[in-house]
Design a protein that fits this description.
The structure holds three protein chains of three kinds. Chain A is of the alpha+beta class. Chain A contains 21 helices and 31 strands. The N terminus of chain B is likely disordered. Classes of the chains: A alpha+beta, B mainly alpha, C alpha+beta. At the B-C interface, strand 4 and helix 5 of B face strand 4, helix 4 and helix 5 of C.
C-alpha cells in the first residue's frame, strides 16, 4: 500500500475510495493465511475482486466481501459494523463474507476500539460507503442497460430495472462500477426502512470461536517464530541494575538473554505510549514452556529508580512534563496520603452560584467519602504480540485496540517509515482499555529486531497482572447542603486520585443544583495507570450514585423520584453552562427502568433493591439490581437495565454487552482490587485477584433500550459504571449499612467476623 | 442449599477455634486428674490391651494430634460444608468445587482435574496426589469446627471414621494423602510438627486408650 | 519422544514429558483452540478432556496423557455440531470469545454426566471457568438449550 497514512477524514475516505479501482486479494494474503473464514476456502478464492470502497469487495461471480475496519475485542464490531454497510449496500446478510480489514487509516478510517466509539464514529462513513457502492453499481447497470439510474433498484445483491425486466447480480457490474466516480451526494435510508440494522444478527465469528479456530494474537504463528518473555522488576519503583543469564542459557530451548531499552532518553511519548518499565530483561527461546523455565534461572539485580521527568504528549491535552516519583509505594500509605491530601486545597473544576455561603447557611450537611483501589484489567488473553522486523520492514500481528496510535511510535523506535510497517489486528481476548497502550507491541518489535527473527512476545498472567497500567486509585468526598425544608441547596464534590483524579465536573448533578462546586487533586505515583472501561466514570457512578441515594433518603424521597426532580430542574432551568448530558434522555432511562423493574410493585418488596443511573460516552444507562441473601452472602439475583444509546445496530449483541457490563460491574464492585506493599503488587493471578464466577452472576439481567432514531452512541462502557452504585444501594437495603470502600466484599467479610 | 449454610460459619471459626483451644489447653491438667473418663473403645472390643490404658497420656497425645488435624494442611480437606478450604487462612476454595458423592468433585470440577498425581511446580499451583479427594458425602469426617473432644470421639467411631478399626487407624497415619500434608507444594506452610512426631502422638493416643479430651 | 493420542489421532512429539499438555498442544501439535489464561488452574481456559474428564491442561504434564485419550475443542465434535457448539451459536454467547473453548469443554462433561442439569448443577460444574466479559447468563442458557437439543436427539 503506497498511500501515505494520514489521519482519517471524510475527504480522504472519499478520495481513496475513488482511486481504488480494482484490487486483488493478494494484498491481504497474510490475513487468509492466519486462518480467516472457512467460508472463503470452501468457496474457493476468486481470482478477481473489485474494490468499490475501502470496505467492500465484489467479485464478478457476486461474492460480496465486507471488511470490518475496527479491532474486535468482544464488543461485536466484527458483526455490527459490516451490518451497517450491508444495510445501505442492500445485500443478503447471510451471503456476505465478513473479514477483518487491514490497518489502513486512509481507506478504513480511525480504526480504534475505545471510548465506546466504534459504532458512533463509523455509523455515518459506513452507511455512506454502503450507499455509495450501491449507487455505483446502479449507475453501472444503468449505463449498460441504457436506462436512467433512477429507474434501477439494488436489492439483496441484485440489480433490477422493473420497466424492461432486466436484472443482474452486483458481481456482473462490479468491474464497471469500480470505474464510476463516488457520488457527491449520497442518499441514506430512513431508519424505518432498516432491514439488517436493528434486527439481531449472530456473531459472524461464532462458529470459529466454538470450534477453537486460531483467531487470537496468542494463536498466531509463523515458521521459525521464537518466543520471548520479559522479566520485569519485582516492584514498581525498581529497575534493572545487572543480570547474569548464564544459567538461563544452559536451559533447553533458550536462544538468548539480553537487556534492552524501550525508549531512549528524552523520547517524547504519545498519550498511549505509557510503559511501566523501560529497561527490559529479555529471554528468547524456542517454545513457551522452555522460556518460562529458562526465566526462572535468571539472576538479576534490581535497584530503586530515581525521580524522573518525562515528556508526554497527552491525548486531547497536549505536551506535558510528567514527574515519575521514586519510592516503593504501599496501598496503606497511599491511602493515608490521600486522606491527608483531601484536606488540602484543590483545583476548582467548576463552580456555580455561591456554594460556600449555601453550606454555611445549611440546616443539614451530609458529607461522605468514597474510596476505590487500583483495578487490573485482567483480559483473559494475556498481553502478547508478534513481530518480525527486518532492516527494511516490520510485520506486527496481535491484539491491539488502536494500531493507528502505536504506529507512529513504532516508526520512530524502529526508524522505519510508516508505510514499511504493517500492523495486523487479531481478535482480542478482551481489551477493556488495557490494549490501547502499545508498549508490548514496541517491545516485541525491538526484540525481533535484536534477534533478527520472527518473535512472539508473551506476558504470563503474572506479568500481565503486575505490570501496571491500572485503573487509578480514587477517592471523593461528597457534600450536600439541605435547607430547613430539606431542599438540596448546594452540592460539592472534591475528588482525588493516584495519580489522576476522577472528576467529570460538568456531569450530573451539575446543572441541577444552584450552588455547585467540583474540585480535583492528584498525587503522582510510579504505579502506571490507563483507561479502564469507562475511565473515571466507573468510580464516579459508584460514589455519586450512592451519595444521591443517601440524600434522597435524608430528604424523605424515593431515589428515582429525587433524581427525576433534579433532571427536571436541569432541563427546565439549567444551572451554569456546558452541562454535558441531555436531561431528557437521562430521565428517560430512569423512567424506563422504573417501569420495567416494577419499581413500586409490592411483589418486589422481597428484594433489597438498588437503583443507579449514569451518563458517559454519550449514552445513558440505568439499572435496578435486586439483591437477596444466598448462603449468607448478598447476591444480586436479578437486574433490570435501561439504556439509551440511540439506534441499536445489533440488539441481541448490544444486550449481551449490557449483560456483560452488569456482571463485570458486580464482580468489580464486590471483589476487584489491586493492592501493593513496598511496590510489589500483592495480587498476581486469579487465586488472589478474585474474579466473578458463574455462581455469583445474576440469574436474570433484563435489558431494555430506549427506542428512538438518534444516531447510535456507545454501548461498551456506559452500562458499566452505574452497576457499582446500584449494587452499593442494594447492599444498604440488604445490610442496613452504607458501603464506602471498594471492593465491598472486604467490608462484608469484616462484618461477618464481628459476629 | 444446606451445605452452604454450614460453610457460612467459616469466617468466624478461626477465632472460635483459638478460643476453644485455649480453654482446652488450660483444662488439660484438670482433665488429667480425672480418671473417670471413658475410653473411646467399648469394653467388648478385644483389640484393646487394657493394661496399656492411660487416659492422661492418651489425652495429652491427642492434643498434639489435634494441632495437626486442625492445621490447614489437614482441615482444609475436612471442611464442615461441601466445599474444601484453601490456604493458611482456610478460606473457601476458589471456584467452589463441590464434594460430590465420592468426595472427588462433580462434573467438570473433579479434584483430579487440577490436582495432579504430583504437586505442580511453582507458587499458587495445585498440590497433587494420585488420590486427591475429600471424604465422601456419606462419611464426611468433618474436622472444621470440631473441639478436640468431638474430634477424638468422631475418629474412634467406626460409623464416623470410615469404618476403621484400631489397626486401620494406626495404619492411616501413613496414608498417602495424610503424608501429602508434609509435602504440600511450594509456598505452603507445613503442619506444626514433623510427620514422625505426629505419628508417634497418634499411636500413643490410640494405644493408651483413645481417650477423648473432656468438654464438649 | 512421547506419543499422544489427540482427537483420535496419534502424534509423536519431541518434548520433555514434564511439559504441560497445554504447551504441547499449542506449541508442538499446533492445536491452539486450547487457551492459556492463568497457568495455575484458576481460569479454565485450558480445559481439555483426558479420558473424558475436564482436566486443566496448564497443570497436566504431558506424561500424564501418554497412552490416554486427549480431546481438545478441535475434536469435540466431528462436524462442529456438538449440541453445545450449536447452542452456543444459537444463544450467541461469546463476546471476546477467548474463554469459550474451556467453557465448552467443561460444559460437555456436565452434559455427559447429567443430561438435564439444573441451574445449581451448572453453577457447580462451571464455577471453575472465568469469563472476563461476563457472559455467564448466556452460558447457562446455552447449556440448558444444548441439554434440550441433546434430549431431543437433534
Amino acid at each position: 500500500m503506497e498511500n501515505s497514512k494520514t489521519n482519517y477524514s471524510r475527504r480522504s475516505f472519499l478520495k481513496s475510495s475513488a482511486l481504488a479501482g480494482g484490487g486483488l486479494m493478494i494484498s491481504f494474503s497474510a490475513f487468509s493465511k492466519f486462518g480467516f473464514a472457512d467460508k472463503i476456502n470452501k468457496a474457493g478464492l476468486p481470482e478477481q475482486w473489485y474494490e468499490l470502497t475501502g470496505y467492500i469487495k465484489i467479485t464478478p461471480d457476486n461474492i460480496i466481501k465486507i471488511f470490518n475496519p475496527n479491532p474486535e475485542f468482544g464488543q461485536n464490531v466484527m458483526t455490527s459494523l459490516p451490518m451497517i454497510i450491508a444495510e445501505e449496500l442492500e445485500v443478503d446478510w447471510q451471503k456476505v463474507i465478513i473479514e477483518m480489514g487491514p490497518h489502513d487509516n486512509v481507506k478504513l478510517g480511525p480504526q480504534f476500539s475505545g471510548g465506546s466509539n466504534s459504532v458512533r464514529m463509523y455509523w455515518k462513513p459506513l452507511r455512506e460507503a454502503g450507499a455509495a457502492a450501491r449507487f455505483m453499481l446502479m449507475a453501472a447497470a444503468a449505463q449498460t442497460w441504457k436506462v436512467p439510474v433512477e429507474e434501477v433498484a439494488g436489492k439483496a445483491g441484485m440489480l433490477y430495472h422493473e420497466k424492461s425486466g432486466k436484472s443482474g447480480t452486483y458481481g456482473e457490474f462490479a468491474s464497471k462500477a469500480s470505474g464510476i466516480p463516488i457520488p457527491k451526494e449520497i442518499k441514506l435510508k430512513e431508519p424505518r426502512d432498516f432491514k439488517i440494522v436493528r434486527s439481531s444478527q449472530k456473531n459472524v465469528e461464532g462458529l470459529k470461536i466454538v470450534t477453537g479456530k486460531p483467531l487470537f494474537g496468542l494463536d498466531y504463528k509463523q515458521e521459525g517464530m521464537l518466543i520471548a518473555m520479559i522479566e520485569h522488576p519485582p516492584a514498581f519503583g525498581m529497575k534493572l541494575k545487572s543480570f547474569d543469564g548464564s544459567q538461563t542459557l544452559k536451559m533447553p530451548g533458550i536462544k538468548d538473554v539480553f537487556s534492552l531499552k524501550l525508549y531512549e532518553d528524552g523520547f517524547e511519548q504519545g498519550g498511549f505510549d505509557t510503559r511501566t518499565f523501560n529497561e527490559l530483561l529479555v529471554v528468547v527461546g524456542n517454545t513457551t514452556w522452555e522460556v518460562m523455565n529458562g526465566r526462572k534461572k535468571l539472576i538479576a539485580e534490581w535497584e530503586p529508580i530515581r525521580e524522573t521527568k518525562e515528556t508526554i504528549n497527552v491525548f486531547r491535552v497536549g505536551k506535558q512534563e510528567v514527574t515519575i516519583p521514586a519510592g516503593l509505594e504501599s496501598s496503606e500509605s497511599q491511602y493515608q496520603k490521600m486522606q491527608k491530601r483531601a484536606k488540602e486545597p484543590a483545583t476548582v473544576l467548576r463552580k456555580d452560584g455561591d456554594p460556600e455561603t449555601a453550606f454555611k447557611n445549611a440546616a443539614q450537611i451530609i458529607e461522605r467519602t468514597y474510596n476505590a483501589p487500583f483495578l487490573a484489567h485482567n483480559c483473559l488473553e494475556p498481553i502478547n504480540f508478534f513481530a518480525h522486523v527486518t532492516d527494511d520492514k516490520a510485520l506486527l500481528v496481535g491484539p491491539h485496540q488502536a494500531p493507528g496510535w502505536i504506529e507512529p511510535t513504532v516508526s520512530k523506535i524502529l526508524n522505519l517509515p510508516a508505510d514499511k510497517i504493517e500492523i495486523q489486528m487479531t481478535r482480542m481476548g478482551g481489551g477493556f482499555g488495557r490494549r490501547s497502550y502499545g508498549h508490548y507491541l514496541t517491545e516485541a518489535a525491538l526484540i525481533s529486531k535484536k534477534v533478527k527473527a520472527p518473535v512472539k512476545l508473551i506476558y504470563t498472567r503474572e506479568d500481565d497482572m503486575t505490570y501496571g497500567i491500572y485503573r487509578p486509585m480514587y477517592t471523593a468526598t461528597y457534600r450536600a447542603a439541605l435547607d430547613a425544608n430539606k431542599n438540596l441547596i448546594a452540592f460539592h464534590v472534591k475528588g482525588g486520585g493516584i495519580p489522576e483524579h476522577p472528576i467529570h465536573a460538568n456531569r450530573f448533578p451539575a446543572g441541577a443544583v444552584d450552588n455547585y462546586l467540583a474540585e480535583g487533586w492528584e498525587i503522582p505515583s510510579n504505579i502506571t495507570i490507563g483507561a479502564f472501561r469507562a475511565p473515571r466514570s466507573n468510580f464516579n457512578a459508584a460514589a455519586e450514585q450512592s451519595f444521591l441515594d443517601e440524600i434522597a433518603e435524608a430528604m424523605g424521597k424515593d431515589p428515582i423520584d429525587f433524581r427525576l426532580e433534579l433532571l427536571k430542574r436541569a432541563k427546565e432551568n439549567p444551572v451554569g453552562k456546558n452541562n454535558d448530558y441531555d436531561a431528557d434522555r437521562y430521565a428517560g432511562v430512569l423512567k424506563l427502568v422504573r417501569e420495567k423493574s416494577g419499581w413500586n410493585d409490592p411483589e418486589n418488596k422481597k428484594y433489597s433493591r438498588g437503583v443507579a443511573a449514569y451518563f458517559c460516552h454519550n449514552s445513558y444507562a440505568a439499572h435496578v439490581v435486586d439483591m437477596v441473601t444466598k448462603n449468607g452472602q448478598p447476591y444480586v439475583e436479578r437486574v433490570f437495565s435501561a439504556v439509551d444509546c440511540g439506534i441499536v445496530v445489533n440488539p441481541d449483541a448490544a444486550t449481551n454487552m449490557v449483560q456483560g457490563a452488569v456482571v463485570d460491574g458486580i464482580g468489580n464492585a464486590f471483589y476487584g482490587g489491586l493492592t501493593h506493599k513496598d511496590g510489589v503488587a500483592l495480587q498476581n493471578n486469579f487465586h488472589s485477584y478474585r474474579m466473578i464466577r458463574m455462581h455469583e452472576a445474576p440469574k436474570k439481567i433484563e435489558v431494555h433500550f430506549v427506542q428512538n432514531d438518534i444516531d447510535p452512541t456507545g454501548i461498551g462502557e456506559p452500562p458499566f459504571p452505574p452497576v457499582f452504585g446500584a449494587v452499593a444501594n442494594a447492599l444498604y437495603k440488604s445490610t442496613g449499612k452504607r458501603f464506602y470502600e471498594q471492593p465491598f466484599s472486604k467490608e462484608l467479610n469484616n462484618m461477618k467476623r464481628a459476629f | 442449599m444446606k451445605q452452604h449454610k454450614e460453610t457460612k460459619t467459616n469466617y468466624f471459626l478461626p477465632v472460635k477455634t483459638i478460643a476453644v483451644m485455649a480453654i482446652l489447653l488450660s483444662g488439660i491438667a484438670l482433665m488429667s486428674s480425672a480418671f473417670n473418663q471413658k475410653s473411646n473403645f467399648t469394653d467388648n472390643e478385644p483389640i484393646l490391651d487394657k493394661a496399656a490404658k492411660d487416659s492422661v497420656e492418651s489425652v495429652k497425645a491427642f492434643m498434639t494430634v489435634y494441632k495437626v488435624l486442625m492445621s490447614p494442611r489437614c482441615m482444609n480437606c475436612h471442611p464442615s460444608g461441601d466445599i474444601p478450604l484453601q490456604g493458611d487462612d482456610s478460606h473457601l476454595h476458589a471456584m467452589f468445587p463441590k464434594r460430590g458423592k465420592e468426595g472427588k468433585g462433580v462434573y467438570a470440577m473433579k479434584c483430579s482435574n487440577c490436582h495432579q498425581p504430583q504437586n505442580t511446580p511453582g507458587l499458587n499451583t495445585p498440590p497433587g496426589h494420585p488420590d486427591w479427594h475429600l471424604p465422601p458425602a456419606d462419611m464426611k469426617m468433618v474436622f472444621q469446627g470440631k473441639t478436640a473432644g468431638q474430634l477424638a470421639k468422631q475418629l474412634m467411631d467406626p460409623k464416623q471414621n470410615g469404618h476403621k478399626t484400631k489397626e486401620q487407624l494406626i495404619e492411616h497415619a501413613d496414608d498417602g494423602l495424610v503424608l501429602a500434608a508434609w509435602n504440600p507444594g511450594e509456598g505452603r506452610t507445613l503442619p506444626p510438627m514433623s510427620h514422625a512426631e505426629f505419628k508417634n502422638a497418634w499411636i500413643t493416643w490410640i494405644e493408651k486408650g483413645a481417650y477423648a479430651p473432656k468438654g464438649k | 519422544m512421547i506419543t499422544l493420542n489427540i482427537n483420535k489421532k496419534d502424534y509423536d512429539v519431541e518434548v520433555d514429558p514434564n511439559m504441560p499438555l497445554l504447551w504441547v498442544l499449542r506449541d508442538f501439535v499446533g492445536l491452539v483452540g486450547t487457551k492459556y489464561g492463568c497457568g495455575v488452574a484458576q481460569c479454565g481456559a485450558c480445559v481439555v478432556h483426558l479420558n473424558g474428564e475436564a482436566v486443566r491442561s496448564c497443570v497436566t504434564k504431558a506424561s500424564r496423557a501418554v497412552g490416554q485419550k486427549v480431546v481438545t475443542i478441535e475434536g469435540l465434535s466431528e462436524n462442529n455440531n456438538h449440541p453445545l457448539q450449536e447452542a452456543w451459536q444459537e444463544v450467541d454467547v461469546p463476546q471476546c470469545g477467548y474463554c469459550h473453548s474451556g467453557q465448552l469443554m467443561s460444559a460437555a462433561v456436565l452434559l455427559r454426566e447429567n443430561p438435564d442439569p439444573s441451574d445449581q448443577d451448572i453453577d457447580d460444574a462451571m464455577a471453575g471457568n472465568i469469563c472476563r466479559c461476563g457472559t455467564y447468563l448466556r452460558i447457562r442458557k446455552a447449556i440448558h438449550l444444548a441439554a434440550e437439543m441433546q434430549r431431543k436427539g437433534s
